[in-house]
Amino acid sequence: MSDENSTGRRRQVRGKVVSSKMDKTIVVAVERTVKHKKYRKYITRMRTFQAHDEQNTCAVDDVVIIEECRPLSRHKRWTLVERIPAQS
To answer: Would you say 64 and 82 are in contact if contact means Cβ atoms under 8 Å apart?
Structure first.
């Protein structure tokens, strides 16, 4: 049985930081597009994840890449991999 996590690869997603008010935690909004079953129109779906930011480097509107990890707290199952600063 071949599982994605058994090969050592963890899922990575790209999203935008929507909150960084907590200590060592950021909230990341990840958008994806799906096709509507009936109308065949593409719809944008958004989901938020709490991720671990060890150095508190991220700010709101930064684009980040987060990766799945072991449970760190009640809601945190993701950790920060890379930070791309906000364009101003």
So the answer is: yes
Structure tokens at 3: 């599982």
- pLDDT tens, residue by residue, 32-72: 999 999 999 999 999 999 999 999 999 999 999 999 999 99
Among residues 16, 14, 12, 45, which one has the least CA distance to residue 29? 16
> How far lies 67's CA from each of 37, 40, 76, 88, in Å?
30, 31, 11, 26
The answer to whether residues 25 and 50 touch, using CB atoms and an 8 Å cutoff, is yes
What range does the domain containing 22 cover?
5-84
The CATH number of the domain holding residue 70 is 2.40.50.140
Number of domains in the chain: 1
β partners of residue 59: none
Amino acid at 78: W
Question: 0.85 exceeded by the pTM?
Answer: no
